């Protein structure tokens, strides 16, 4: 019962949740932390006048502070990254993370974030990479970087200061890719603490966030709540354009999985006609209903069971053949990695 209260909180927002009765408070705190929303949950429940036992309040506050501390660390790395990229003439698009929370949440540190995600044009990857290395961040090895450039959507830079993912594609998943050129061309100028940044146009961002969430099988409720908050923040959203953007990708089914779950579970105001326009075949809708129940998402069930994860990816894929090829390649690479480690 306690974990489901988290859904009640998210569904009620921006109103305070009502009718909060006896519950398993420990389960609620655990779910809020697991889904990256401890700080937000603390505020929302405070608005509702919820007064649990001191030990529960202390645990929720501790989780919220831990997430906020991590968020401050990520913010510091983000600002340093923006400064060093500006020095080489690169103004990236901020994806997810602190930039999203800054625009959508009551306080940006109420949403957990663990790394910096930056999207740049393909021609900017080399100078941006050198700039990030100048911050003391270690890049991937030559072989891994070449593999990522061919098959993935970002390069990883890590160090004591944290992790930066430099995206050169919007998405790579289910055996297919979403290139970034069109999204970058429509991106909008903005600023973060005096630094120039860009954000995806609202319709593009909604589709991107939905695709990202479904690529990870909706295993964090914060991703669904992000969709709701974005829709609420942009009342003039062009839904016809949302459909057009989603259909223009190789992943319209993925947009449907996330938008449908966001409406069903957290109350995102997604119009019926949008879901109808993006809906996958009936058999995949039935499978999605089984994989993405409230209980399974609250428990992040798929994340902890690799066979079920692989099965869900295969069965929910927009196109089976590319996904099957991708799965076979990953299994082969994993097998080779095991052999090399022996």
Please tell me about this protein's structure.
- The protein has 342 residues and is an alpha+beta fold.
- Helices cover 59% and strands 11% of the residues.
- A hairpin with a 2-residue loop joins strand 4 and strand 5 (162-167).
- The chain starts with a helix and ends with a helix.
Q: Helical stretch count?
A: 17
The CATH architecture of the largest domain can be given as: 2-Layer Sandwich
Approximate strand percentage: 5-15%
In the CATH hierarchy, the third-tier topology of the largest domain is known as: Beta Polymerase, domain 2
Radius of gyration: 20 Å
**Which stretches are poorly predicted, pLDDT < 50 over at least 5 residues?**
336-341
Biggest sheet overview: 5 strands, mixed
Q: Mind sketching the topology for me?
A:
Blueprint: H1 2-12, H2 25-34, H3 38-47, H4 54-86, E1 93-94, H5 97-104, E2 116-119, H6 125-133, E3 138-139, H7 142-151, E4 154-159, E5 162-167, E6 169-173, E7 176-179, H8 181-186, E8 188-192, E9 195-199, H9 202-215, H10 221-233, H11 239-247, H12 252-266, H13 272-278, H14 282-291, H15 294-298, H16 306-316, H17 320-341
Helix pairs in contact: 1-2, 2-3, 2-4, 3-4, 9-10, 9-11, 9-12, 10-12, 16-17
């Amino acid at each position: 019962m306690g974990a489901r209260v988290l859904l009640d909180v998210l569904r009620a927002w921006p109103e305070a949740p009502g009718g909060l009765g006896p519950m398993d408070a420990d389960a609620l705190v655990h779910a809020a932390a697991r889904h990256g929303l401890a700080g937000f949950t603390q505020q929302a429940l405070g608005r509702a006048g919820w007064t649990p036992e001191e030990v529960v309040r202390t645990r929720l506050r501790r989780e919220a502070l831990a997430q906020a501390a991590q968020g401050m660390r990520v913010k510091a790395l983000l600002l340093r990254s923006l400064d060093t990229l500006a020095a080489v003439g690169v103004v990236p698009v901020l994806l997810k993370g602190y930039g999203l929370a800054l625009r959508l949440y009551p306080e940006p540190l109420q949403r957990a974030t663990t790394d910096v995600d930056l999207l740049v044009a393909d021609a900017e990857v080399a100078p941006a990479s050198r700039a990030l290395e100048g911050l003391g961040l270690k890049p991937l090895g030559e072989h891994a970087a070449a593999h990522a450039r061919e098959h993935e959507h970002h390069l990883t830079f890590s160090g004591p200061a944290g992790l930066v993912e430099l995206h050169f594609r919007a998405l790579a998943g289910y055996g297919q890719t979403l290139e970034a050129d069109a999204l970058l061309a429509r991106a909008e100028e903005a600023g973060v603490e005096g630094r120039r940044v860009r954000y995806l146009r609202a319709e593009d961002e909604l589709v991107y966030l939905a695709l990202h969430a479904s690529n990870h099988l909706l295993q964090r409720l914060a991703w669904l709540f992000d969709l709701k908050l974005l829709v609420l923040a942009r009342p003039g959203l062009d839904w016809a354009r949302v459909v057009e953007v989603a259909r223009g990708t190789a992943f319209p089914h993925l947009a449907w999985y996330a938008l449908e779950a966001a409406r069903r579970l957290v109350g995102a105001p997604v119009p019926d006609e949008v879901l109808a326009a993006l809906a996958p075949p009936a058999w995949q809708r039935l499978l999605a209903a089984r994989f993405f129940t409230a209980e399974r998402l609250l428990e992040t069930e798929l994340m902890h069971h690799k066979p079920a994860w692989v099965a869900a990816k295969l069965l929910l894929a927009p196109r089976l053949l590319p996904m099957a090829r991708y799965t076979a390649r990953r299994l082969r690479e994993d097998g080779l990695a095991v052999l090399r480690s022996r």
